[in-house]
Amino acid sequence: MSSATAAGRPAWLGLPGWAAPAGAAVLFAAAYLAFRDTATLPHSREAAPFLAVTELREWIDDNRNDNPLFLYFLNYIRLFVGGLYDAFHTVLFALGWPGLTGVMGALGWLSGGRWIAALAVGGVSAFGLLGLWESSVDTLALVAVAVLLSLAVGIPLGVWAGLSERVRRALTPVLDVMQIMPTFAYLAPLALFFHIGAPAGAIATMIYAIPPAIRITALAISEVSPTAVEASASLGATGRQTLFKVHLPLARSTMALAVNQTIMMALSMVVIANLISAPGLGGDIIRGLSRAQVGIMLPAGVAVVIMAVTLDRMTMALSRRDAHARTSRVDLAGAGALALAGLALIPVSPRVWPENLTLDVVAEVNAAVRWAETTWYPVTTFIREATTQALLNPLQSLLTSAPWWLVALAVLAAAWRVSGLRPALTALACLLAIALLGLWEHSMMTMSTVAVAVLVTLAIGLLLGVAAARSPHFSAVQRPILDAAQTMPAFVYLLPALALFGTTRFTAIFASVIYAVPPVVRLVEDGIRAVPATVVEAAASAGSTPGQLLWKVQLPMARRAILLAANQGIVMTLAMVVIGGLVGAGALGYDVVLGFSQRTDFGMGFVAGIATVLLGVMLDRITQGADRRSSPRKRKFT
Fold first, then answer.
1. Per-residue pLDDT at 362
2. What is the pLDDT of residue 631?
3. What's the CA gap between 314 and 28, in Å, rounded?
4. Cα–Cα distance list, 445 to 242, 421, 578, 604, 621 (Å)
5. Cβ contact 548:495 at 8 Å
6. In this predicted model, what pLDDT tens digit does every residue of 194-244 receive, in sequence order?
7. Which residues of 605-633 are buried (b: 16+ CB within 10 A; e: fewer)?
8. CA angle 54, 58, 60 (to 5 degrees)
9. What is the spatial distance between Cα 85 and Cα 82, in angstroms, rounded to a whole number?
10. Contact 442, 40 (CB under 8 A)
C-alpha cells in the first residue's frame, strides 16, 4: 500500500524545500526583464487624490465657523483642550523656576526617595542651564495635557477590555493600526479638523500615546487572580465593588507602567507636533534640522532626553513601590522641605531662569561637528557610498522600474508563503490602495529604504542579542545603554546621523538603525535565554560545538522572538525613515513635510501619510503572520 502511494505521488513533491522559492524567483526575474520600465506608475504632484484633499481643506477653512460639525462639536473640543493647556501653562509659569524645581523635587522624593528627588531637581535645573526654560515649560504643559487626556480615555477603555474578551477583540485591530502608524501620519488629519497650534498638538500627542495606556491596563486587569475575584463575588460584592476593591488595587503596579509608557510616547510625539505649530522644544529641533545646524538642535535634544529620563525614573520608581507601604516621616519631611523652599522663593525670584546662568554651546557644538565631518569624512563617505551603491540604489531601481502588477504579485506570493493567505490578501489590498492613491513610485522608494535599514538593524541586533544571551557580563554592560536608548524620543537620533552624514538618504537609514536596534537586541536576547536549559545541556552533551549549539538549537527555538524582533524593527524603521524626510530621505517622508510647509501641497502630504500607514500595515501583517505560523521544519514533518 505504501509503495503504491509512493508510486502515485507526483514527482515534484520529492524536490527539496528550496526548489519552489527558487523557481518562483527565476520566473519573477524573467518577468522583470521582459516587462521592465512598463506600468511603473510615476509620481505626479497633480494626482487626483492630492487635488481632492487640497480642495477639501480649502472648503473646511472657508466653512470652519459655519458648518455644524465644526461649530457645535470639533471647535468645542479644540477650545476645551486649548483651555486645559492654557491652565497647565499658566500654573507652571506661575511657579517660576524655583517653585517648579521644588515641586518636581518633592514629587521625585515621594515617588522614589532622595536620589530620584536629586535627579528631578537636576533635570529641571538643566532646562534653565541649557537656555531652554520657556520651551521646556511649554513642552511639560503639552505633555501633561496629552497624558491626562490619554489616561482619562485609555484607562477606562483598558479596564473594560480587561474585563470583556469581546471588547478586547474589537479594540485590538484598532490599536494595532494606531501603533503601526508613523508619527507624521497623525498630523495631517488633525491639522485638517483642529487647525494648528497647541490644541491640535495636544490631541495628536494624546492619540499617539493612548494605545499603551489601553493595552497595558487591559493586561493588568486580565491578569488579576481569578481566585481573588471569585472570593470577592462569593462574599456578596457587586461588580463595581470588585473592580475598585480587587481589580484596581491588584493591578496597580502594572497600571503604573501604563502611565510610564504613555508619558514616554507623549514625549516622542510633542517634538514632531511642532510641525503643526505646537509649542515647545520641537521648535528648536525643527529649526536646527531645517538649517542643518546640530548646535541649535543639540541643547533641545538633550533637554528632551533629560525630561524623558526624569519622568521615566519617577514613574518607574512609583510602579515598583509596595502598594501597602507607607511613606516614612523622613521622606515626607524631605519632600515637604523641598516644596516649601521652592514656593518660598517665588516672590523674590524671577519667573524665568536668569540668562546669566545659561550655557551657550551652539558655536562650540557646530565647530565640533565641522571637525568631525572633516576628520571622519573618508570613513563616513565610504560607509554612506558603499551602502547606497551596493544596497539602496539597486533595490530602489528594482522596485521603481518593475511593473506595479509584478511587485504586487511578488508581495502576494512572498506573504502567502511566509504568513498565510489572509495576511497575503491584506498585504495585496494595501499595495493596491497605494497604487490608487497615486504614490506608488515614492512608496517603492520608501520601501527600499526601509528594507535596507531593517537588514542592517537585524544584522546588528542579532549579533548583539546573541552576544548578550551568551555572556552575562556583556549583557550587564549593554542593558543600561539599551535602557537609555529606548527612553530617548525618536527625533534625538537624527542628531548624530545629521552630524556624521549630512542631509542624505543614508542619514535616515543610520538614524533608523540606531533607533530600532535596542528593542531588536532585547527581543533576540530574551528569545535565546528562553530556550530550555535541558535542551541546551542535551545538545552540549551530544558533542555540539558552541557554533552548532547556536545555529542548530538556540536560533531555531528562538524563532518566534526573532520574528517578533523583525516585526518591531520594520515598524520602527518605517516610522524613523518617514521622519528622515526632514534630513533628505525623500519619498513619502518628504511628501508629508512638504504638505505641511506648502499649502498647495497639503493634499499630497495628507495622502502620503495614508500611504505610509498602508505600507506599515502591509509589512506588519506579513511579519506578524510569520510569527504565528509553525516553523518550516515542523510543517515538513506534520
1. 77
2. 43
3. 55
4. 54, 26, 11, 16, 20
5. no
6. 877 888 888 988 888 888 888 888 888 887 777 887 787 787 777 777 877
7. bbbbbbbbbbbbbbbbbbbbbbbebeeee
8. 115
9. 5
10. no
* Eight-state DSSP code of residue 224: S
Alpha carbon distance 258, 113 (integer Å): 21
**Secondary structure of residue 250 in the 3-state scheme:** helix
Q: Side chain identity at 274, as an amino acid letter?
A: N
CB 180 within 8 A of CB 571: yes
Residue 72 burial class via C-beta count within 10 angstroms: exposed 0-12, middle 13-18, buried 19 and up: exposed
On the CB side of 618, CA atoms within 13 Å amount to 24
Helix residue ranges per DSSP H, 530-601: 533-541, 546-549, 555-557, 559-579, 587-597
CA distance 498 to 286: 13
* Per-residue pLDDT, 436: 92
Separation between Cα atoms, residue 496 and residue 380, nearest integer Å: 12
- Cα separation of 300 and 335, whole Å? 29
Which amino acid type is present at position 134?
E
Radius of gyration of the chain (CA): 27
Residue 385: count of CB within 10 angstroms of its CB: 12
Low-confidence stretches of the chain (pLDDT beneath 50): 1-12, 629-638
Answer whether 577's CB lies under 8 Å from 516's CB: no
The grid coordinates of residue 431 equal 499595495
Q: What is the pLDDT of residue 357?
A: 78
- The Cα 27–Cα 97 span in angstroms is 68
Distances (CA, A) of 531 to 297, 524, 550: 44, 11, 11
